[in-house]
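Box S2. Input/output pair 1.
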Amino acid sequence: MSGAHAAPRGRMAAPMAGLRTGYITLFDVRFEHGFYNAGGGACPDLRVVPTPACAALMRQLNMVFRDHGTGFSVLVNAARAEAMIAFLRSSYANGPQGRGFWSRLSFQLVATNPGFVGMTRLPITTNLMTDNLHLDNRSASAAAGRMQVEAGGADALVPLAGTGWAVPTPAGRTAALLDLSGAPVAARTSVSDAVTRFDLTGLPYGLYSVAVTGRTGRPIAPRGPGATRLYLPRTPVSLALLDLLLTQPVPGAGDPAAYPVSPMAAPAARGAATPPATIRPVALTIGFQSRATYWHYYIVARGRGQFADDLAITGGDVSFAKSRAALPNGDRAILFTAATALPLHQHAPQCFRLSGHRQGATGARDPISVARLPTAPPAPVWPVAGGGALSGSSEIYVYV
């Protein structure tokens, strides 16, 4: 992107560093993930890609984008700060729908770790080719001196629209395409066979919804899949779209501290004084939770002999059910299955011990002791038969 300066990945610039270089920080965004407990939660698994409309707006307003590897910053030239605020005022939407200040910066978050979905508290069957997250600062809340947006959960995903969207509209019903603000969008539209088809080609990438009304103008819930979809490019395949609104769009829409430009009233009548607006940097954390999985320890005997009945896993408050299992290569194992799902961590706090005896062919009993069993890796993670969408299964093989 023209005018952007990328910092070396992994280095985190001070949020206010721009003040020393003639730039003012608007957003300092940090990615955190519960898996990375060894590094304070800093998550290095996301690449940030400004959408074309976002890149054009940043050029227009003389903004700079800096990627820090575990987050990013957006700064504005201090000499252009007043011009940016004037632009926001001039972009006020005054129609019956979508009224307010909706200027925003939009970024694709691209997962660089192939195992990201597996280790994250998202539906385990998530397919990023068909569904993505939508995040924006209207849902941010204060936590530990920063504004926090929680990402993930069972209902967090939004279907992708592709370049077209077909909506059933029986006789007497009319469908309209709306943008993030709820304002109608002038998309190419065709109606045939009781279906309204919207062509999204050429529209800015973003979150869109459909409103269906009857003959009287009364809203009607659309038939079929959800009435909200994300329009994003096919490549790169993204995990999420992040919308950062520059000022509070309407009173009551989120915490005012989540927006870098202080809340503004509707533009004053011609000739009236314009209330001042100020810029205050927003420190924002996008937080992902670690997936909890049921740990399965497969204990396999090396050489001859078999395990005695006293083989056991102990440690902590987790109990394990014991059974026998045959592995695909013909080996036989003792399977220990945790009764509780455990969060995945870079450095897991659990310390499970294995103890018991091996029964030799001659009747000898050799003691077995593993002081610390390996913990579950972040990948692969498998679905749990009959389990919840947010849980999973981790397999750990131990040869003794």
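Box S3. Input/output pair 2.
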Amino acid sequence: MVSNFVLLVLGALKSLVIGLFIAYIFNIIMNRFEKLYFPKSSSKLAERTRRPVCIAATFAITTAIIALIIYIVVPEIGKAIGVLYAEIPPAFTTAKDFVTGKLKEYPEIQQQISSLEFDWASIAGKASKLLTSGLAGILSSAVGIIGGLASTVTNLVLGIIFAIYLLLRKDKLIRDANRIRRAYFSDDFNKKSSIVLRTANTTFQSFFVGQFVEAIILGSLCFIGMKLLKLPYAAMSGTLVGVTAFIPIVGAFLGAGISAFIILTVDPMQALIFVIFLIMLQQLEGNIIYPRVVGGSVGLPSIWTLAAVTIGGGLFGVLGMILGVPLTATLYKLSFRVLESKEEELGIAVPADNKPQKPDKPNKQPIKSKKADKKK
């Protein structure tokens, strides 16, 4: 009973959680735009239009990037499927002739292999009968798929609307949250919670920005390298590798696997060259690009990054792989902050090379309680 209630509440909050995630990501982009939109102007028109214009620009550039990725990737995958459809029957015939040529000493096996035929029409007919016999089950499955898709789209639309509201009312929501903290919590709690929130915000922002830059660099290097090596599907492969690189460590390999399979439809030797090239590029990315672009800003050692990706992926799939790294980095920094405070109390010297990267210091003064104000 309790578990059903919890699942019901989580289902109802799904669109709000999606909206929070979208708002957080878009806020990073929106802040950049706000710094460019008449930053020195004090006119009321600029102040009133800054937030709506920057939100619109954020959504526009995000939509354009997604549309560009779909425009590059989907047609190339369609072409690859067409090549597979055209090339499989001749490849089957060639393989059959090769095997029968090698089995001259076994005429019975040779005769059985020679009798095999690859006929798309026959396969389509059998598939049609299978579909007809299981029509009821397929219809129910189709209804389930359509219902799930409609639910996902609905949650996404509601999440976007909620994200827009959060971004428009961001400043007031932060002020109200600070008022609640000052009214109901102590100075000590507010100070500690500010450190936790500031550390988490700095780490997550650094991770997302660094991961985005790293994905662009890796995708661009993949595209340039494939062009120099004269490999097919360079634009599609570079885009896939770049997009999947948002998943730390394993993402680029996923994109490389899909790209290698598609290149295999054109030329197996070129697919092998592509795999070798990606392995070399991955070494460059893992040892030079990622530590400098993402690792340095997040401040998480490689062993903990691998552990975060493994555990996060096992618990929550792809989303766990992505969010596991900044979450682990936040806990890592906070635990070292506590450890350093304890060592200072005990008078233990702290090695300089063992200190993780600390978050930036806040510009504002710590939050004071109402009691402190009354004393003044």
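Caption for Box S3: Confidence is low (pLDDT under 50) at residues 357-376. The two ends are 53 Å apart (CA to CA).
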